[in-house]
Write a sequence for this structure.
């Protein structure tokens, strides 16, 4: 088995399990009121990107995939809520990490482009 594939698979499994366990243990609920839904996912995204192996786009997709899994599961679950206020709150709860990861991916892309511009060809 290719070492890059093995490392990325381990990264994906650990990241996805950690993210899903933290949300199912309701750690996200406490973070909701303190801005943790914007800060924690961005920091986690940066670490996931850092420890992923391979070219830039592969590393970026490895870092984004666990958050997409969480947000898709959460948004599908929240859309089935009957009360409009509760549905809006649940949708917001699962949209915030998605915005955080989007901001993290923009920062990583800018950092990557700056590093590429600095290195002589």
């Amino acid at each position: 088995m290719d070492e890059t594939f093995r490392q990325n698979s381990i990264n994906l499994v650990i990241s996805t399990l950690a993210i899903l366990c933290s949300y199912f243990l309701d750690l996200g609920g406490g973070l909701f009121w303190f801005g943790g839904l914007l800060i924690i996912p961005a920091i986690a995204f940066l670490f996931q990107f850092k420890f992923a192996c391979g070219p830039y786009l592969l590393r970026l997709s490895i870092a984004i995939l666990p958050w997409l899994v969480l947000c898709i599961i959460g948004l599908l679950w929240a859309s089935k809520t009957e009360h409009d206020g509760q549905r809006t709150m649940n949708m917001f709860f699962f949209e915030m990490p998605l915005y955080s990861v989007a901001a993290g991916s923009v920062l990583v892309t800018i950092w990557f482009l700056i590093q590429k511009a600095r290195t002589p060809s």
Q: What stands out?
A: The CA atoms of residues 107 and 113 lie 10 Å apart.
